Amino acid sequence: MLPPPAIAAHLPDAVRAAQRLAWAREATGEPGLALERASTDAGFRSYWRAATAAGARIVMDSPPGLEDAGRWLRLHALLAAHGVRVPAVLARDEAAGFLLLEDLGARTALQALDDLDADALMDAAFAELLRLQAIPPPAWLPDYDAALVERDLGLFHDWFLVRHLGVALDAGEAAAWRALRERVLAATLAQPRVLVHRDYILRNLMPVDGGVAVLDFQDAVRGPIAYDPASLLRDAFHTWPAPRADAWLRGYHARAREAGLPVPGLERFRHDAALMGAQRHLKILGIFARLHHRDGKPHYLHDAPRFLGYLDEALPGLPELAPLAGLLDRHVRPRLAL
Known about the structure:
- By secondary structure, the protein is α+β, with helices and mostly antiparallel strands.
- The protein has eleven helices and nine strands.
- The termini are far apart.
């Protein structure tokens, strides 16, 4: 019998591994089954590949007390019911935090990028995103509200500036930062609202026959329509040339209007996407610093220069965020030697 969730969160790795293997063997009916690491998540979720008589399978391990398998399953059911391609669930034990999934392959869209046609990939990625955004957000879906926007921006201040770089803003800088947060908050809440994945990037898409499948949707919310397109085009782990990204954004905008989604006019939407991208770049810098200092995962911070580059590209067109450029110049670049 598995321990209660509150205890499961504190189990030694070896004990959890034994539970995972026992569950996978029972779920597949193969007592000699072996598991090998397939991938890890930036959180506490992990994925394991198993070779079975019926083909390869993936075991998703969401330790109770640390990850919520129930939320993942609820969103999986919502997306699948509306035609979004997601991995099939073959067996489940929600209380224990174990799921048996179809294996969509060993490489994400990011890992397979060199072997894919970029235009075809992005066409498929936007087609799947349009399906996702067309889903009426259910009442139980959280809002990307003021508290969540403030929390996201706080990650940059608390973890990247203060904890990682050792920055202490003076009174004038602190006031400018508060004003900047208020502007981002107002602009975010003013956008048309749709279902938002919140991490719609190449690493969370799997190339499959006929397009792409969507992973890691458990943090979805009802939020600004420009958020996911900005995430995809200013990917956390891959940089597209700006003219190419802008062309894809224009193409998405035309398809979204044709599909009846509530996008504003093109220039307004381009501005909204740039602002959502800037907000997200700050958030990710904070998350990567937290992964380093709290979770012992330092490699994420190697991508910090990518986000500064994105911000350099976006800020000239975002006069409402002008104080951010000075903050980056005074406190971030000298400490990162950039």
